[in-house]
Amino acid sequence: MENGNNITEFILLGLSKQKEVEILCFFLFFLCYIAILAGNLLIMIPITYSQLINQPMYFFLSFLSLSDLCYTSTVTPKLIIDLLAEKKTISYNGCMTQLFTMHFFGGIEVFILTGMAYDRYVAICKPLHYTVIMSRWKCVAIAAASCAGGFLHSFGQFLLTILLPYCGPNEIDHYFCDVYPLLKLACTDTSRIGLLVIANSGVMGLVTFVVLLISYAVILYTIKSYSKENRNKALSTCSSHITVVVLFFAPLLFIYIRPATTLPEDKVFALFYTIIAPMLNPLIYTLRNMEMKKAIKKLCFHIIGRRGNRLKNIPASQHRAC
User: Fold this and answer.
1) Can you spell out the DSSP letters for 174-241?
2) 89 has which bridge partners?
3) 91 forms bridges with which residues in the sheet?
4) Among 4-8, 127-131, 298-302, 311-315, which stretch is predicted with the lowest mean pLDDT?
5) How far is 194 from 184, CA to CA, in rounded Å?
6) In what order do the strands lie in the sheet with 171-172?
7) DSSP state of 173
8) The whole model's pTM is what?
9) Residue 85: Cβ within 10 Å count
10) Contact, 252 vs 158, CB < 8 A?
11) Cα–Cα distance between 198 and 187 in angstroms, integer?
């Protein structure tokens, strides 16, 4: 296909045309982004600097937080800036870069959630073989495979989009560059490409979601024979995973499993997997997890203790000077 592109930048129409709504959204999403940064770092740092990093479940949880942080950072800062801007523009290269990175980190998240489900399946359904099956190299291999899968998924979306000719108009009815809004702007027939996008994003997401639901159904069936204490512990862990999976996949499937069309509701649903899910994931995984709470408290006490020791080592004369 010959690329007859004469567009150098796109105009993002954003979430609303009312300035009062945009100002309100600015403060709301600014606070959300601060919460995302703080929450995910609060998971990554305690796990990395404790023995929890040697446990597969927490290794994957740390990796999920990292992908959440990168994923939302491809969209949210630009959204926050644009909410106060008079003209919301993004260059052609910037648009394609945003599309690639967003689908790359989003793909990683899809596959790492699958890896986490596999880890819980082995831990609950095959506990005697858990340490052998979920070895360190297996965890690293799953993380590497997630990155490779995310890259292949993203590269496919990127390739389908960048080869299209864009002759104008250049207004994207969204707050970030995504495949369906860009297909709408292409000055060529995109019906076949739309089917490829559905296969790449929609069908892949649907199959992954069904596999995850089946795996958790098997886990829930298995724990019926457990003691009450072990059953409650397994239910606590699995319920957190299921909540995250539903929160991420439900709006994702609403957008990508249907034919290549855009709806006004797409922006609202996109907020769930670009901002709300990355913000809630740390809360979901830490509020009901005693080991994470202990690791966070230990890190806080360690930081406070180091600061206290530094203050003790300051000579009294310097204290008086201060």
Assistant:
1) SSS--HHHHHHH-SS--HHHHHHHIIIIIIHHHHHHHHHHHHHHHHHHHGGGS-HHHHHHHHHHHHHH
2) 11
3) 9
4) 311-315
5) 10
6) 89-91, 9-12, 171-172
7) S
8) 0.86
9) 12
10) no
11) 20
| C-alpha–C-alpha distance, residues 158 and 142, integer Å | 24
Helix (H) or strand (E) holding 305: helix 290-313
Q: DSSP readout, 29-80?
A: HHHHHHHHHHHHHHHHHHHHTSGGGGSHHHHHHHHHHHHHHHHHHTTHHHHH
Interstrand relation of 9-12 and 171-172 (parallel, antiparallel or unpaired): parallel
* CB distance 71 to 272 below 8 Å: no
Q: Is 89 helix (H, G, I), strand (E, B) or coil?
A: strand
Tokens of 74: 């491809």
| Count of residues making up the chain | 322
CA 310 to CA 125: how far, in whole Å?
A: 49
CA–CA gap between residue 74 and residue 320 (Å, rounded): 47
Question: Of 6, 29, 25, whose CA–CA distance to 92 is shortest?
Answer: 6
Phi/psi of residue 11, nearest 5 degrees = -110, 120
Q: Classify 11 as helix, strand or coil.
A: strand
- What is the token pair recorded at 42? 């609060």
Residue carrying the six token digits 């927490």: 58
User: What dihedral do alpha carbons 46, 273, 37, 181 form, nearest 10°?
Assistant: 140
pLDDT-derived band at 320 (thresholds 50, 70, 90) equals: low
- Residue 42 neighbours by CB under 8 Å, 6+ apart: 282, 286, 296
pLDDT above 60: residue 318: no
Contacts of 118 (CB under 8 A, 6+ apart): 142, 215
Per-residue pLDDT of 65-78, as tens digits, reads: 999 999 999 999 99
Angle value at C-alpha 242, between 206 and 215, nearest 5 degrees: 65
